[in-house]
Amino acid sequence: MTDYAYLQTQRFRYERKFYIKNKSYVWVELILRNHPAIFKKIYEQRAVNNIYFDNFDLACYFDHVRGENRRVKVRVRWYGDFFGHVHKPMLELKIKHNQHVGKIIYPLKPFVFDQSFSIGAMRQIFRDSDLPGLLVLDMLNLNFSVSNRYRRTYFLSRDRLYRVTVDTDLQFYGLSPRSNNFLNRHRDRQNIILELKYNKKAESGADRITGFFPFRVTGCSKYIDGVNALKGWA
């Protein structure tokens, strides 16, 4: 799998993820509101939609499973309705290098996501959008891997150094290259994924923040969970 070394981002951050089993969103929000850092909701909850891409060998998937120090996840993201006209899609390359996480984001041409959507249509969108030439060539060699959708709520600590996202109602869909009936589907309403995000200047206080959480850091990935669920690899 290409490492996209020709793409550079200076906006690296740290992330710690928590997979919270069989707890309600209300319980998680109560934990955050009673935390000494005083987390408060900063945006209204919204739906996040993604299409993930990988090669035929699922190199991105296996890089993550093996715990490679440098790996890339490639996705198209949009917000709001899952089906229908996608007004502001974004191509995101999420780059992880050891404990640092960075994202490179490019706007894409709008498209319609429905049963007739195909990898050919997606590749034409990559060609028509304002992407670096080498990136377009890389994207043309990738295929649909999995799609997902979840509800995300955002919180910020009182000192504004730590951001938390809480993802609920996780849904995963298998995608075919030519047309899709979206019947290959897995839904998880029982579990929650919480992510703590911060930059380097806040690194020294991160252990204090997580020390008050009644759950442990876990190495979870919604992309990996989706592939496992839909292929029966879990």
Low-pLDDT regions: none
Structural class: alpha+beta
Number of DSSP E strands: 12
Side-by-side strand order of the widest sheet: 1-7-6-4-3-9-10-12
How would the global form be characterised? globular
The helix tally amounts to 6
CATH architecture: Alpha-Beta Barrel
Structural domains: how many? 1
Give the CATH class. Answer: Alpha Beta
CATH topology: mRNA Triphosphatase Cet1, Chain A
Biggest sheet, open or closed, and with what strands and sense? Answer: 8 strands, antiparallel, barrel
β-sheet strand percentage: 35-45%
Helix content percent band: 10-25%
Measured distance between first and last alpha carbons: 23 Å
Q: In angstroms, what is the radius of gyration?
A: 18 Å
Question: How are helices and strands ordered from N to C?
Answer: EHEEHEEEEEHHEEEEHH
